[in-house]
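Below is a complete specimen:
___
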Amino acid sequence: MRFNLTNTMVSVHATYFSLLILISIQFIYRRFFFPFFQKKLVSPLFI
């Protein structure tokens, strides 16, 4: 039971951490790369 709970917590933290990384990457992309690339290429992921 304790191992199961620890495993679930680790999984939740990993999901939250990867989501945080994804959000920060998207923010950096919007902040720096999107004004440079928006005339050539518009990605539907970052609108």
User: Anything to note?
Assistant: The chain has a mean pLDDT of 77. The CA atoms of residues 34 and 42 lie 8 Å apart. The chain has one helix and no strands.
